[in-house]
């Protein structure tokens, strides 16, 4: 029995260090873990209420259709029918709440390049351009109608 308790001092110190680290971890975990953690899974249960209380920033395609039905009808007949309006125009809840022209993005250039700038990672069927050789103007919408791309303005 005495032989088991008698071990080299470096092993004793390592064991003492391990016990100290584990104890410190358990104490910290006890005081730092929120009370609602694990209530619904591996996150804080209160996080659901916090997220639900946030003001929405995206309106959704149906909201756009209510006021812009003519543009929506054009859109669903062409290549961009699967895209969300907010994918190009940005979050639209503020525009839905207060429909002004200055609270929705209508730049039409960077949104186009996000999908159409030439990249080897994109599928071949998706139309791609090299901006320097394709066009040097300021807006893609000078030559293209984004809601019905085959149409010429």
Explain the overall architecture.
It is built from nine helices and no strands. It has two domains: 9-34 and 42-52; 61-142, no CATH class. It is mainly alpha-helical. It has helices at 2-5, 9-32, 46-53, 61-67, 69-75, 85-89, 93-97, 110-116, 131-134. It is elongated. α4 packs across α5.
The total tally of domains equals 2
Give the strand content. Answer: under 5%
Looking at the structure, what is the overall shape?
elongated
Whole-angstrom Rg: 29 Å
Q: What's the overall average pLDDT, rounded?
A: 83
- N-to-C CA distance: 94 Å
Helix share bin: 40-55%
Number of strand elements: 0
What is the element string, with H for helices and E for strands?
A: HHHHHHHHH
Uncertain regions: pLDDT < 50 for 5+ in a row? none
Number of helices: 9
Q: How would a crystallographer describe the biggest sheet?
A: none
Given the helix and strand composition, which structural class is it? mainly alpha
Keyphrases for this structure?
46% helix, mainly alpha, elongated, 2 domains, 9 helices, 153 residues
Could you outline the blueprint of secondary structure elements for this entry?
Elements: H1 2-5, H2 9-32, H3 46-53, H4 61-67, H5 69-75, H6 85-89, H7 93-97, H8 110-116, H9 131-134
Question: How would you briefly describe this protein structure?
Answer:
With 153 residues, this protein is mostly helical.
